[in-house]
Amino acid sequence: MKLVTAVIKPHKWEDVREALETFGVNGMTVSEVSGYGRQKGHTEVYRGAEYDIALVPKIRIEVVVDDADADDVVGIVVKAAQTGRIGDGKVWVSPVDTVVRVRTGEVDGAAL
Amino acid sequence: MDGYYAWMIVATALVLMMTTPALALFYGGMSRSKSVLNMMMMSYVALGVVGIVYVLWGWSMSFGPSDVGGVFANPFSLFGLEGVAGGSYIAVCFQMTFAVITAALISGAIADRVKLSAWVVFLPLWVTLSYFPLGHMVWGGGFISQHLGAQDYAGGTVVHINAGVAGGVLALIIGKRVGFGKEPMKPHNLTLTMVGAGLLWFGWYGFNVGSIVLAGGGEKADTRQFMTETGVTFLNTTIATCAAMLAWLAVERVLHGKATSLGAASGIVAGLVAITPSCGAVDTLGAIVIGAVAGALCAWAVGLKYKMGLDDSLDVVGVHLVGGIVGTVLIGFLSTSSAPGGIDGLFYGGGLGPLGDQVGAAGIAIAWSAVCTTVIGLAIRHTIGWRVSDEAEVEGIDSDQHGEAAYDLGTGLGRGLPSSGVLAATQGRAPVTEGAPA
């Protein structure tokens, strides 16, 4: 199993969720996060005083999927979240040893 | 003239609203979240202290019958309003609200770092030495009104130049906030500031249009004259402010790429400040010009504090001193005899005389306020001291000076834990029965 983590622009969240549901992903964990990449945040101006705001709001999506689905899920997220402009985000994949469904005690593939 | 008194009561209440809550909201929103209550308290406490001082000797010093060298009137001639009667009570209330907001305006320059006790000591000293004498010089038959033909309809010199200079001088004497120029000190709640600016504009009609009492066009005027004068000052107050807001936004758009809400709020105040002395002296086009010049110049001026290293926290100098000078000096160019309180200025064939009078009045106000505020500011610095400790300043002056926090957004964890609050309250309560004599 793999954990697919995506950090995307907030306005792309609905598109990504729809694409993942269409593909058959049953659940995901979503959080509002902030961070920055190469674009280094943005600037705010208060009465002429410029403040560099380093952190930009983003949405982080975490999905655990079967090994075979990992590449497809990454592709779906990238396609749905892409605007082509700076700050579109990142997707990465990490290995997952074990998954247990708390309600039933089911393990791994059956727990997804 | 019954309508005159009815209007003056309304106008007085409007000006009172300018300090509490309008200025408190305007300044409070621009402060950091850890010091918003202290900022608001400086306005509320100004109302408390100056209100009392005004009826004891403020009215007497400003408008009392015994002039002392053209500078002030005998503080004891009408002490405690002894001898005041009839319609004068409304004039006292109206003038009291002016003294209150002028003092409260200064607090914006020294936000986040001043002990409440120092502010409470400063207030009566400053209004006594700086505000009441200037009020007498300009409005009460003193030096400026006797020797200069300067026009100041509602307080460009007495209120705005006076408060602006005082704010700048105090910011110098008290020093910068810890971290000024290094740490971000963003406004914490611009919605409060926007509400405050809107309420200031609303209340300013009492300030400017109510100042018909000072212009002598009220009680004794016939109805037509009263309507003309109140109408023109109302109109000029409105359109100058519209122009100033747009000018500030335009400057921001050009210099920084975006027109901001804080710019709109600031432009509103800059326009209101500049039209204050001139609202009775100029025609419609003159008011638009004064507003536009004030909006643009103040937008530029607020950036200077970073270049000068002066921590005038909320730009009292950039908005009130600069705006007050713009409004006072432009009268010399734009004043016209077609306005109810105006004489012809430079652009209307009046020559350099009126301009000289306006510059002279502004100069006297600047010098008077600077000297008085320096003396008081240094005296407090070398006695009780102005500042809270650096630690208190960094952790939050609200907690240090008032034992309060403005916002409790707790989730039930940490300081929001209900039991900790109950526990503290129980421990703080004195035992009622134990140990009491039977």
UniProtKB/TrEMBL annotation, chain A:
Pfam families: P-II
Record-listed O-UMP-tyrosine modification sites: Y51
SMART domains in alphabetical order: P-II
GO MF annotation list: ATP binding; enzyme regulator activity
Gene Ontology biological process terms, A to Z: regulation of nitrogen utilization
Subunit comment: Homotrimer.
Name listed for the protein in its UniProt record: Nitrogen regulatory protein P-II
Source species: Nocardioides panaciterrulae
Automatic annotation (TrEMBL), chain B:
Organism of provenance: Nocardioides panaciterrulae
Its membrane topology: Multi-pass membrane protein
Domain of life: Bacteria
Protein name: Ammonium transporter
Single GO MF descriptor: ammonium channel activity
Pfam families with a match to the protein in the record: Ammonium_transp (PF00909)
Residue span, Ammonium transporter AmtB-like domain: 6-407
Sequence intervals crossing the membrane: 6-27, 39-59, 79-106, 118-139, 159-178, 190-214, 234-251, 260-278, 284-304, 316-339, 359-380
Keywords per UniProt: Ammonia transport, Membrane, Transmembrane, Transmembrane helix, Transport
Major site of localization recorded for this protein: membrane
